[in-house]
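hey so i finaly got around to running the thing on 4-hydroxybenzoyl-CoA thioesterase from Limimaricola hongkongensis DSM 17492. pasting the sequence first so u can double check i didnt mess up the copy paste, my clipboard has been acting weird all day
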Amino acid sequence: MSHRFETRVYYEDTDLAGIVYYANYLKFIERARTEWVRGLGVDQARLKSEQGLVFAVRRIEADYLTPARFDDLLVIETRPEEIGGARITLSQEVRRGETSCFKALVQLVALSDTGRPLRLPPDLRAALAAR
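ok and heres what it spat out for the 3d tokens, dont ask me to read them lol
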């Protein structure tokens, strides 16, 4: 199952040409991932404080397809692709209406406070797998 998150393009998101600055797509998909996890009932602050677990982006493949512009309404779709022991792979797409502006394949890892990989706790794994 996929998750949808809407955001509007603000002036601060654009460059001198009036199009979304390329790095801001990464911000958009980060926000969408945060809302996806929140929607699953996962409290990331509690994960950190109680289990010392945080998520970090390990790898990202990004395709910039067509520019989004000031005041566009964008929908970011997040879809789990693979859930491993300590790794989660997601596909994310930013669309303006039916037009795909940006696509990414994002690999997240679960890390400890010291930066070492951690296995996903069974309850978290179950929540993520419920997709």
